[in-house]
Amino acid sequence: MKKTGILTIAILILVVTVPLMAQVKDTTKTTDQSTWSGLNMVYKKEHIFNKKPIEYPQVREADVMWSKVVWRIIDLREKMNQPLFYPTKPIGDRMNLIELLLQSVKDKGLQAYSTIDESNEFKEPITYDQVMKNFDVKDKVIGVLNVVTGLTDSTRIKGELNTDEVLQFMVKEMWFFDRKRSVLDVRIIGICPIRVYFEPEDVNKENIQKKKLFWVKYPETRPFLAQKEVYNAFNDSEMRSFDEIFYKRFFTGFIVQESNVFNNRVIEDYALGIESLREAERIENLIFQFEHDLWEY
Question: Is 266 part of any domain?
Fold first, then answer.
């Protein structure tokens, strides 16, 4: 009887344990780690990573009857521009615009250009290390008390790259009228991140500093922009790419400079305060007024 009882218990244990072991094993096999992002395991994202830049309509010089080059500041603190600023640190495959540009310059061969000569944005190529110097990433040496010897030892702390200091972008763009298509169109020529920060000795943060970091040619940047998604607050399954954000003008900015006879001087050189805002508005209206005047109503 004892042998029969023991045999029965053993069989019951096997009946219960084997299916559970098989279930665990099957779950391990069916879990695709490449689709795991911490938020969903429903499907593997492929669409955004295979995107190509949106094709521009072909433009011939003979069809451009009017054009104007302007420089515009995109301030990332404005609500409409926040998708270009967040996340401040990469979350999975998501990253903000400055992180994408730095990664593209460092690992993907995107060429950066110096900002020293403001009249020729794309004449002097610079390396990734030179870009880092513009961020003032420097190691610090501090004194630490050694409790054993009672002496102060020098310790080197590695410098931190604060990409969240990039609060503005300057874009150079050309507005033109294409008579073949009868439309006023625009093309972005280049992008320049601007670092907004305070000097370490400015404890009270009274004197804000602004520093242009580097220029990149926008046409060369588009393949990288097209394959990185931007957060969509209304639909997690319909993320736009950075390329779509710029192509469809889903951002806001204000003009700070236009092409002119005075060495392309900036607005701040001849207008201050409220007058500079009025001048920027005047240039903006000039562009759209040109198209308006071409038609009869």
Answer: yes
Structural domain boundaries, residue 278? 63-131+163-293
Q: Per residue in 79-102, pLDDT tens?
A: 999 999 999 988 888 899 999 999
Residue 230 lies inside a defined structural domain of this protein: yes
> What pLDDT shows up at residue 246?
97
Evaluate whether residue 123 is within a structural domain: yes
Rounded Cα–Cα distance for residues 118 and 259 (Å): 12
Could you tell me the pTM of the whole model? 0.80
Number of domains the chain is built from: 1
Domain assignment present for 149: no
Mind listing the pLDDT tens digit for each residue in 20-76?
Answer: 455 544 444 555 555 555 555 566 777 777 889 999 999 999 999 999 999 999 999
Which residues are registered as beta bridge partners of 241?
229
Strands (E), 78-224: 112-113, 125-126, 140-145, 152-157, 166-178, 183-197, 209-212, 215-217
* Cis status, amide bond into 87, omega within 30 of 0: yes
State the Rg of the chain over Cα. Answer: 28
